[in-house]
Design brief:
alpha/beta; 12 helices; binds 2-phosphoglycolic acid; 8-stranded parallel barrel
Length: 247
């Protein structure tokens, strides 16, 4: 049985004071061990969030990392820096990084390999634009992204990756994919993993859906056979996240 994952993506939101305030309201309600609850927070909030969630089952993740070990990379954060803060997960290849910060699959692949080399679990995002969906390219886009993002990732490491299918047209737009649209792509994603690795990996890898997940639609989406939870943006910034975790 694959353990469900509910991961928050705070993006560039919440000051330290605001994150403490939110955590004090929600932490006792999301402190469960039947699901993996992960909060991916801005770099500046990681230390505080770790402190605030000490002695709970809540895991803290980052939203990005740089693939070099150290050196003259002004403004970047390395995997060792994350590790020394106790970070266990990192979002890689989010569409906002791909689109706004021009990250390509080659960089994403280097980041995935770097995170895995430090035993930080990548939450690897993939997804299509509205234009690509309308041209019927969704499945080929996902296949293309994953096959490039996973180059040189061993079978053993592939089992540790969490994939998040996030249709770009559904992110922050309030337009959620229907649960059957989400299931269709997540099922196909599992087939790609089977092609790239084998049945064992495809049956064990966790595949999440992300894009306007709310308390009102989470239950239906998470109930789908190939969807193992969600990556939650906007709705993770309020107490609504409690109901999503419980969905
Ligand atoms: P959203 O964001 O839930 O606000 O649509 C999801 C994401 O970008 O990970």
């Amino acid at each position: 049985m694959r353990k469900k994952v509910v991961a928050a993506n705070w993006k560039m939101n919440l000051t330290i004071e605001e994150s403490i305030e939110l955590l004090q309201k929600i932490k006792n309600h999301i402190n469960i061990d039947t699901k993996e609850v992960v909060l991916c927070v801005p770099f500046t909030n990681i230390y505080t969030c770790k402190e605030e969630t000490k002695n709970t089952n809540i895991h803290i993740g980052a939203e990005n990392l740089y693939f070099e070990e150290k050196g003259a990379y002004t403004g970047e954060i390395s995997s060792s820096m994350l590790l020394s803060l106790g970070v266990e997960y990192v979002i890689i290849g989010h569409s906002e990084r791909r689109q706004i910060f021009n990250e390509n699959d080659e960089m994403i692949n280097k980041k995935v390999l770097k995170a895995l080399s430090k035993n930080i679990y990548p939450i690897l995002c993939c997804g299509e634009t509205l234009e690509q969906r309308e041209k019927n390219e969704t499945l080929s886009i996902i296949k293309n992204q994953l096959s490039k993002d996973l180059i040189n990732v061993t079978k053993e490491d592939a089992m540790k990756i969490i994939i998040a299918y996030e249709p770009i047209w559904a992110i922050g737009t309030g337009k959620t994919a229907t649960s059957s649209q989400a299931e269709e792509v997540c099922k196909y994603t599992r087939e790609i993993i089977k092609e790239l690795y084998d049945k064992e990996v495809s049956e064990n890898v966790r595949i999440l859906y992300g894009g306007s997940v709310k308390a009102s639609n989470a239950k239906e989406i998470f109930a789908k056979e190939n969807i193992d939870g969600g990556l939650i943006g906007g709705a993770s910034l309020t107490e609504e996240f409690i109901d999503i975790v419980k969905a």
